Structure formats: structure tokens, C-alpha cells
Amino acid sequence: MNKKIKLLSALVAGVVGFGMLAGCGSSNGGSNSGKKSDKELIVWSHLMDNEVKEVNKVAQEWAKKNNRKVKVVKDESDMKAFLQAANSAKGPDIMFGIPHDNLGSFQKAKLLAEVPSGIVNKDDYANPAVCNAVSYDGKNYAIPLAMETYALFYNTDKVKEVPQTMDDLLKQAQAIGGTAFQYNASDFYFNAAFVQSYGGYIFGMKDGKYDINDVGLNNEGALKAYQFIQDLAVKYKFIKADINGNIAKDNFQNGKSAFYISGPWDVDGFKKAGTKFALAPIPKINGEGVKSLMGVQTAFVSGKSKDQDGAWDLMKYLVDNTADKLYEVGNRIPVKKADLDKDAVKKNDVTSAFVEQLKTALPMPNISEVNGVWDAGKKIQTALTGKDVKKIAEDIQKSFVDSIKVATKK
């Protein structure tokens, strides 16, 4: 999930519970009979143009081998448009490349076909959490393609020793002074890493599912996180209340900041600008790896497809043969152990840093009720002005709970 694409509609669940969900490959979902179809299979993709081009090449390989026709198209429609198309004769059979946190709306509308057994094996994946990201009620409805998170960029001219703890980072940043440590503190996407690492959470878990009645944005851990974020502005004066993504990025790119938290989407720009940087996992908080957010690019077969067997056969071929190309042209970090162990990935220092951070990252929940949590970013930003964090926490909790009530009435 490229943050810039901003299809993100959710934040990660609490520090507990992901292991309670079913993993990839445990589903017994069915396909239709073994009768061969000559229907043209249609693949929609939200991936970038150059990535869609590579997916199409692989799809045409499958088509030639199976004497079938396949059409791969770039698509930027929303769920409503997909629903309309899916119910028509021109609807797609496969969606290849969509952030997992969008799956909740599709699942509610019964647009996701259950993954048949034998398509994927959970043991193939480096982080079991990618499987949880595509599961509902113990069943799998999509296949993980790639994963991403954010990590710590640092200026190699200003930083001689990579900080291992957040306390170390703050000490170094204080010694450097000025805007030494910045990130987009106005966006809850990044702030959630601190909220969850200090003990807050978005949803609790109940019976292996997200419990929308259990919100932890106003507990002791969340308050500590809001105070930490406020200190960055009020106590240390690293950031100002008007901070946003562009300001933080430009300050790091221009050498004004020594530390910067962001994702892989900024790497190419920094390289082109000549910024001297390297990457590392976000320094530990309370002795543990930081719980940043994990986005998972996924693929699914439409529940409305008239050729489920053909669609799943094509899907498996695409999944098995596109990981290298998506990494090469789109910097998509593979999810399977075998792909991560290839030299092109393993020997890339930038990718390795994100892979290390992904070990403690948690997937954004894939249910639609989390949409309202994004407003928390605006409320946390008021903490940067020095306002009472306890009152801010109460406002965040109430606002999110109210948004959940509205969402569940729809």
C-alpha cells in the first residue's frame, strides 16, 4: 500500500489477537465444476502502469499455455463502480493489486470468492500477519502479493551511530538541534506506531475477530503516546504544529533533518535529489520493536465471476510468477520467504531495512468500521500546540466510537 495512493481506510488493531485469526491456505472455499470455459478472463488492477504491463505479460503467458483469452486493464474505480461492473457481463474476474484494508467493503457486498484449498500455503509466507490481513471469520478471501510499512530514514552525514532505542534517537536529535527529527505528525497513519507501541490500540479482539465495541485510544498507553508526540513539538521543538508530509519530507531531503520516518515511496525522490541517507528499523520503545502499520497488496477473484475455475488457475499463475517483476519495477516487497531470500532483495540495504521493520509491524484491520479513525490525525495535531493530551484522548475516543455507530447503521 503506497501511502500516496491513499486507499488506506484503516489502522492496525491492538497489540493482541492477530495470531487468533486463520492463516492463508486454511480455507476450503469451492470453485465451480471442472467444466472448461472459453470465456475471456478479465483482470483489473490498481497497480501502477509499469506494474500492470508486467502483470499483463505473465497473464498472456498463461493464456497461450491454456488456449484462453485474458484482458488485463488498469483500473482506478471505487467499490461502488466495481459492484456495478461485477453485476454486468463486462465485470472483472480478478482484481490483482489492491490494498487489503479495502477488502472489508468488498466482503460485505459479497464480492469476494473464497480462496480454494491448495492455492496458497501459509508456511510460504515470511510474516503470518499477511494471511490474517485477507481473512474473515476464519476463511480466506484474497491472496497476499506484497507488503509495506514505514521505517527510519537517517542522514549519513549527520548520524554516525544508528540509534537502537527511541531514547537514543532523542538524545542524538537534541545534540544536533533544530528540526533534527521529523515525520508527518498530522497523519494518524504514522502516529499509530507510537500509540500501539506504548499500549494503545484501535480495536480489541473477541473470538478471533475485531471487537468494534472495544476501542483503546484513550487508555494509559495511548495517553503516553500522545504525550510523546506532543513533546516532539513542545519540549524538544523538532516539529511545529503545522507539520505535514511535504514539510517533513522536504526538510529531510534538503539536509535540515537528521531523522525522518516514512515509507518506500520517498526513496527514489531522495536518490534523485542526492540526499545522503540510509534506513533502519524505527528504534525500539520500551525494549520492543515498534508496531508500525503494515499494508498488504492483495488479489482476489470476484464472487460474481462466471468462470471461477479458470480465474483461480490464472490467479495462481500470476501470484507464482509476478513477485520478481513487481519488486523490480514497483519496489513491492515480496511476502514469500523464497522471494525475500533472493539476492536482489536480500542484498538491497533499503529493502532489508523495511523487511526488518515489517517483523514487528501489524496489518491494518480489514473491516470497514475503522474508516473514522483517520480523523484522529487532525485531533492529535492539536497536541502539538500544547493542549491537554487527556482531553485530546477523550475527543479521539468519542469521535471514533461515534463514527463506528454511524457505520454500523448503514
UniProtKB/TrEMBL annotation:
Key words of the record: Signal, Transport
Pfam families assigned: SBP_bac_8
Database matches in SUPFAM superfamilies: Periplasmic binding protein-like II
Domain of life: Bacteria
One Gene Ontology cellular component annotation held by this UniProt entry: ATP-binding cassette (ABC) transporter complex, substrate-binding subunit-containing
Positions of transmembrane segments: none
GO terms for biological process, alphabetical: maltodextrin transmembrane transport; maltose transport; transmembrane transport
GO MF, any single term: maltose binding
Signal peptide: 1-22
Membership in a protein family: Belongs to the bacterial solute-binding protein 1 family.
Protein name per Swiss-Prot or TrEMBL: Maltose ABC transporter substrate-binding protein
Organism encoding this protein: Inconstantimicrobium porci
